[in-house]
Fold this protein.
Amino acid sequence: MGILTTVKSAELRTAGVSSATGASRRAFLKATATAGGGLLLQAVLPPLARIAMADALASSVGEASSLGAFIRIAPNGIVTIMAKNPEIGQGIKTMLPMVIAEELDVDWENVQIEQAPFDAAKYGLQFAGGSRATPLNYDPLRRVGAAGRQMLVAAAAQSWNVTPSECSTEAGIVHHLKSGRSLAYGALASKAAGMSVPDLATVTLKDPKSFKIIGRRIPGVDNAHVVTGQPLFGIDVTVPGMLYAVFQKCPVFGGKVVRANIDAVKKLPGVRHVFIVKASEANRSGDPQGLNDGVAIVAKSWWAASRAREKLEVTWDEGPTAAQSSEGFAQSAARLAQQAPASYLRRDGDVASSLKGAAHVVEAAYSYPFLAHISLEPQNCTAQYQDGKVVLWAPTQYPGPGAKLVAATLGIVESDVTVNMTRAGGGFGRRLRNDFMAEAAWMSRQVAAPVKLVWNRADDIQHDFYRPAGFHFLKGGLDNQGRLVAFSDHFVTFGQGGKLADSAAMDANEFPAQLVPDLEYGQSVMELGVPTGPLRAPRSNALGFVFQSFIDELAHQAGEDPMDFRLALLGEPRVLVNSTGKPDALRDFNTGRMRDVLRRVAEISRWSQHHTLPKGTGKGVAFYFSHFGYFAEVVQATVAASGDIKLDRVWIVGDVGSQIINPSGAENQVQGAALDGLGAALGQAITIDRGRVVQANFDSVKPLRIDQAPPVEVEFLITDHQPTGLGEPALPPVIPALCNAIFAATGKRIRNLPIDTDGLKA
Amino acid sequence: MAYTIEVNGVKRTVNVDDGDMPLLWVLRDELDLKGSKYGCGVGICGACTVHLDGAAVRSCLTAISTIGAAAVATIEAMAANPVGRKLQAAWMELDVPQCGYCQAGQIMTATELLSNNPNPSDAEIDAAMTGNVCRCCTYSRIRAAIKKAALIPTDAATAR
């Protein structure tokens, strides 16, 4: 790219996603001429905004705005757009550059995408999570592209000595129709760098009706590499001279190494180093996200290290978590349910007297298990420590905290940590935590060589940050008209070190809050030694099951059609303000948007005819609002006399705003999220016994397979709202829709996940 | 110990300590062919699928010492396989991948399927592909891509 000379910069205010934190969204657009006659456009955040962003992130992923565009236009017209976020399978590497290319008005065929390294100063916030890429970036990146286009037009107009308003653009060419002249962007790039930088806040955006790239089905930019098996993923990284490592941690979370037969293992074929890792040397707080105790085996091949591991004998101090088990938690939860909740998330009206006066009261206990993420690419990282600095290649969803963790673990400054982001073979939230980075970095320093650490499948399943299990003890009261008048939940969840465990919270506004006059959500907490964390659609993936299943029970008790009962509960279109009490267009619950997706899914699934299905076949419906997206889903399932469940078909209607940026990616995400949820409901649980995970591979934690996968019909309602993301919101409703379909088919209510097919035997 | 095996039409010699070393790790770490992936290590996810004399096998369970004269073909050679090439084209046209990690294994199994059964039904596709996990659940598109590839004349796909 050559030497850069900054030509102009201007401080600008960009419109962005509404932010609860109020973090500054002032961004600089920098235009630079490159030595070879090209144009470099860079939108960067000033230092203060970056600090505000980091503060916001400390509490929650993605609450702050971000802007980190980086565009290069070469003299030959090739436009290179840096993909700033990690690609974990949600299509971000394709989708975000599409947004820039659209407003820049270039031909997609002339766009090249490069994966950016982690560099917060240059790219701002870099992460994949929370379905945030679209809401955080759609508007800001459009503006960056539009500003670039405006500068290219200005350059052309100056060359021709005409006014810019007489010029138009198309596919990377500026035209002056009056004189019939035209100039390609490549030829204008160098001159454009000298034009004044437009105000991002007021730059003219395209009318969406004229979009040529946004809204088109554009295949993933890495597809050719994927289908030909070229190296892309973290596990594919090779560094000259690297050794391969495995790491044996205590099967009980938080356990410590007492001793190990290190000398014997060192003598095994191919083994170069065996050593005990003491977490206390690097991780004094005992943060489960940091380095844990264990024994590292570093060998000339991963296979040699794995074989040697079979001979490794470790004596552990298992610690207090060894007393914990899933069964024990279920018993404790049942005991706690007999008592008043320890605290309340909300208390509206007078639930006790409302239940007393109700015509019918329905009571039910629901539970769901711990879940692992089971990304198909196991956790891994390659690290090269040299002269006090470390370079990492990591399939991470969130490199910033990874760099921080590595710096803290090694006791070096963050500026001495370089993180290269690789494509990740699935994330699902697992790779928001970067424990594998700390481990690889530690090992590389210890052995003074580059180290590639690869976890085996059992490591990956048994050392995760699990979706927390949970227990709900529900009561619903119906009046003599069948209306829901009272609702209570006693949520028994988990805590760690005096606060709720990660991703174990419930929102005070959880549905059906604000829709039922007398409602209370109580909460009790059990101490947990098992690490927990976000799993695709955190909290919602479990709460959707509980509340949308229980609502179905209430509809049944009321003698109402489940669809009509839900529509009646939602009532007239209105906005229910989010639980912070501060109105926010993205976070507030719009009952009208939900009503519309529900009505539409009733149409496309021919809901009105669900009574005519054959015996053993049923349709179930559910809806859920999460990650700013409104989804209503219908599942049809057939239950055999053996209890076996056949998934017949899924219908999904979603509302994620005014624009589907890449319909191909969007449909893929929605179908995948729904099938992911069905797979979890049918075959996945992590069971804790004596403080350790029982399951070890895909025979006991079962991902959905092709012969189980039903057709999934997807439709989007295009509405006049800000476009939002799709990695997650289609997942939560599919599980209760399935459970409700099973009830319709069999009369048996699923109140515990995963679904026990033995209980469905005729 | 030295083993000479034929990989993608080329004889390759590797020196390994352990005759039990799975072909997967020989391919990935000795021969630097990274397309075959590690997923489960016990033959139940299909990410490591390769061909031995045209038959799809799990390379994570195939010891180097058992290969002998059998021809090994990996995803890296599928562009030169008339059926594999059609499948790759269909996979790209239908934009099958999400994370992409399983797709090499999917294409290897699908290549075996279409080589033996040029026009499979949905049920035949499901039966053949059930050993290949896609954690992102791109199954609808995998089915569609196999059917699409089945419609492409083999000559057209190989004609580049």
